[in-house]
Amino acid sequence: MATVSPLAKYKLVFLGDQSVAKPASSPVSCTINSTPLTRDTAGQERFRSLIPSYIRDSSVAVIVYDVANMQSFLNTSKWVEEVRSERGSDVIIVLVGNKTDLVDKRQVSIEEGDNKARESGIMFIETSAKAGFNIKPLFRKIAAALPGMETLSSTKQEDMVDVNLGSSGNSSQNAEQQGGGGCSC
Prior knowledge:
It is a lipid-anchor. By secondary structure, this protein is of the alpha/beta class. It has one domain (12-184): Rossmann fold, CATH 3.40.50. It contains 6 helices and 5 strands.
């Protein structure tokens, strides 16, 4: 098993359309053995030329969409393409459906997010940054996927909501009604 230096550093980039509430839009105090560095272009078109330079040396790309905004979800394909064109397969990509607290306004189902992630071969989780739902599990999932961190993959995951529990298919619906979300690898 590979060993990881306690000083190993990994660069995370958060990508997504304007108004999807990426953590860089507000103060965030989570790092993975690195110094936090925030560059929020808010998905604005005038900053598109800067994005490749942020992606270029990243270890992780977190692509965020708003579950209450179908267009932001549809645009995640271009973000995945952008990351892959800069980093190839040498990057961890996580698709994050944010704002699960907006239950009545949901336009993108858990299943749609999960299916898109599976088709793209990337990880998926839903969160609510506002309510703090699935934020720690998101970063645990990322940390466990980093090179040399295989032992973390068996870490307790009781905070994660598994929408695939049970065979009746109602668990997804129940999690969604409760403002829940899902995660998959």
